[in-house]
Design brief:
The complex is a heterodimer of chains A (259) and B (405). Chain A is an alpha+beta fold and 259 residues long. Chain A has a single domain, classed as Alpha-Beta Plaits, CATH 3.30.70.20. Helices cover 29% and strands 14% of the residues of chain A. Chain A has 9 helices and 10 strands. In chain A, the strands form 4 sheets. A 4-stranded mixed sheet of chain A has the order 8-1-10-9. A two-stranded antiparallel ribbon of chain A has the order 2-3. A two-stranded antiparallel sheet of chain A has the order 4-5. The radius of gyration of chain A is 21 Å and the shape is globular. Chain B has 405 residues and is mainly α. Chain B has a single domain, classed as Formate dehydrogenase/DMSO reductase domain (Formate dehydrogenase/DMSO reductase fold). In chain B, 70% of the residues lie in helices and 0% in strands. The two termini of chain B are 37 Å apart. Classes of the chains: A alpha+beta (259), B mainly alpha (405). Chains A and B meet through helix 3, helix 5, helix 6 and strand 6 of A and helix 5 and helix 6 of B.
């Protein structure tokens, strides 16, 4: 082995050791896991399992739900594609579509005709995370199921696995359907060929804000830590009769509906 | 041995040329898809997998099917398959190439494909499917190539080949089991969420796969001096018939479970497929064609007199292939996504570009199979085994042509 080659190997070894040390340091600093920033933000809201309680008595019409969807979609640059290949993070559906397990033959017409706000359930046992072949979809320590759009290969296995239809695939170029002059520059647009969905507004929780839909709901949505008995979400669950979508599938949704 | 693929008749070159033209022509549709995205397909939010993944699923069955020749030869020393084994292995190679092709054309970001290797995720069945499919490809390349090469050199097969072949036999079952697991572990997709799905996949594979293989081999007989022994054809037809009976039996088990239990989720997909629901009956004519052709194929294959009529056999096999393709290449996937997660119906039908891209993948598989079969038949001709005799017998048949004349 000649001298220069030995030098090179020594240098390469040191560099590798340095990189390992640096990345280990990074892991320690961001003890929050997942997408937490290296420097902890004092305002960041923390939880063991974020959850949402939606009052279907108040959010019962398309008119009531539309502004919430608009706020969410504007904030996250979600395009509106007028086809069956649309992208939806938050949308409204009929009671029957939302809760196909509860099709009582005779029921209160008022309840039967309510519209229901739908979004990702951030399941405690998310099938989408289980099936993802690249860990592009993953569950954070705070219970939020979120995505790495740069790792997703677009196999859409997660869409087949999600029993709630909460996932959207960018079949085409999403920016073609966005008003580029009105983009929210704080949040990235996505590229063609990847899956996306609601993230419970992780980027807002990090700076101490409530999810955009909860903020725009005028008190119809209680958001909080499901593991904290004093959280607004648990308070709403204590005081009201609630149901979840397709509980028999065992995914343990973190979104509850007051009936 | 590869040089044998380069020396052929004008007809052989014409066929290769035609396939290349199809691949290149349909390749433009794929470039179009690469440039604009999967929006050129008929897929949607609710039917997020379509024709590509359905063809992938069907062809995994074809890949697994070679084992119906390899297993009787290696495990039961059924000598009539001695010179047919190589075609099973080579067909498996072509089929896996098509499977991988259909995966590649289906994913939204194909250039990120290696993320599956860079971030290996054992809890994802797709990760395991990648492992077993590529493993099966490698096993068949090694087993097929080495056995043909040593045959050509008139040498005994190397000792290490047997463990490789035995592994490939077990492996064949794994590829279709894992492919079924892709579907059958998903909560809320009732048509797929059934413990018998993997068994159904295997039964369907072991009838449709050898049927396609036998059809291609009969075609090979027409264009080369190759001739299968009659007993070999008879046995393979018998295997196909048994597997088809099991396949239909398993399907009827699903029908019983769904309708006797009367559980809407279990009945939903079958009702949509065979009767239609919410005013949607797109697949009804297809599914009844499947039912009719399945019965017809059995009627033509079960009676030995009809099954052993080798003039009729190709038609019986073609009917069987069409029936199983509708069931697995169409109904299984569209029926699995319908009724959708909202208990509604989201119709799906492949678009023109989607079909062209599928044709590109099929033509690529045909090219691989043509080249491999060309090499194999050349070697068989050189060795003087499984060759056509003037009286129509095969040299493996031990029939006395002089007497027949």
């Amino acid at each position: 082995m000649n001298e220069s080659r030995r030098h090179f190997l020594k240098f390469a070894g040191l560099t590798a050791a340095g990189l390992v040390a640096a990345s280990a340091g990074g892991v320690l600093a961001s003890s929050g896991g997942g997408g937490a920033p290296a420097k902890a933000n004092k305002e960041t809201l923390h939880a063991t399992q974020w959850g949402m309680v939606i009052d279907t008595r108040k959010l019962s019409t398309d008119e009531a739900i539309a502004p919430l969807a608009a706020a969410c979609h504007a904030l996250h640059n979600v395009p509106n594609i007028p086809s069956k290949q649309n992208i939806k993070w938050l949308w409204s559906s009929s009671m029957e579509e939302a809760f196909p397990d509860f099709p009582n033959k005779y029921q209160s017409p008022e309840v039967e005709h309510r519209r229901v706000m739908l979004l990702c359930n951030h399941c405690e046992q998310p099938p989408c995370v289980r099936v993802c072949p690249t860990q592009a979809t993953y569950k954070r320590a705070d219970g939020i199921v979120t995505m790495d759009y740069h790792r997703c290969i677009g196999c859409r296995y997660c869409m087949a696995a999600c029993p709630f239809g909460a996932r959207s695939f960018n079949f085409g170029e999403p920016r073609e359907y966005l008003d580029l002059t009105k983009l929210n520059k704080e949040y990235p647009t996505r590229m063609r060929g990847v899956v996306e969905k609601c993230t419970f507004c992780v980027e807002r929780l990090e700076v101490g804000k409530q999810p955009a839909c909860a903020e725009a709901s005028g008190g119809a949505i209680a958001f909080g830590d499901l593991s904290d008995p004093e959280s607004p979400a648990r308070k709403a669950l204590r005081e009201n009769y609630t149901i979840r979508r397709k509980p028999s599938l065992g995914t343990e949704p973190s979104v509850y509906y007051i009936i | 041995m590869l040089e044998r693929a380069l020396k052929g008749s004008p007809r052989y070159y014409g066929w290769i040329g035609l396939l290349l033209v199809i691949i290149a022509g349909c390749g433009t549709a794929y470039i179009y898809q690469l440039l604009t995205g999967l929006k050129i397909t008929g897929m949607s939010r609710d039917v997020s997998w379509g024709f590509y993944i359905a063809q992938f699923t069907y062809l995994v069955g074809l890949a697994a099917s070679g084992v119906m020749i390899v297993l009787p030869y290696y495990f039961h020393h059924y000598k009539k398959f001695k010179h047919m084994v190589i075609f099973g292995e080579f067909m498996a190679i072509g089929a896996v190439v098509m499977c991988l092709g259909f995966i590649v054309v289906d994913i939204g970001q194909p250039q990120r494909m290696l993320n599956v290797l860079l971030n290996p995720t054992p809890n994802s069945i797709l990760f395991w499917d990648m492992v077993v499919l590529n493993g099966y490809l490698l096993l068949n390349i090694v087993a097929g190539w080495v056995s043909l090469e040593t045959d050509r050199l008139r040498l005994p097969h190397p000792g290490w080949l047997k463990p490789v072949v035995y592994t490939s036999i077990i492996w064949a079952f794994s590829i279709h089991t894992v492919t079924a697991f892709l579907y059958q572990g998903l909560p809320g997709r009732h048509y797929w969420l059934t413990a018998i799905l993997a068994a159904r996949f295997l039964a369907s594979a072991f009838c449709s796969g050898p049927a396609i293989l036998l059809l291609v081999m009969l075609l090979t007989e027409k264009v080369t001096s190759f001739k299968m022994p009659k007993d070999g054809i008879r046995t393979l037809a018998k295997i196909i018939t048994y597997a088809m009976c099991v396949n239909i039996f398993f399907f009827l088990l699903e029908v019983f479970t769904a309708f006797y239990s009367n559980i809407p989720g279990h009945m939903g997909s079958i009702v949509y497929l065979f009767v239609g629901e919410h005013g949607h009956s797109e697949l009804v004519p297809w599914m009844w064609s499947f039912a009719a052709m399945a019965v017809l194929s059995l009627a033509l294959l079960v009676p030995p007199a009809l099954r052993d009529n080798h003039k009729l056999l190709p038609y019986s096999l073609a009917i069987l292939v069409a029936a199983t393709w509708i069931d697995k290449g169409l109904g299984l996937l569209i029926g699995g996504f319908n009724p959708n997660v909202y208990e509604g119906i989201s119709p799906y039908w492949p678009t023109g570009p989607e079909l062209l891209i599928s044709l590109m993948v099929y033509a690529t598989g045909a090219l691989v199979v043509t080249i491999l079969f060309k090499i194999a038949t050349d070697v068989k001709a050189e060795l003087g085994v499984s060759q056509k005799l003037p009286c129509g017998c095969s040299t493996d048949d031990h029939c006395d042509c002089a007497k027949a004349a």
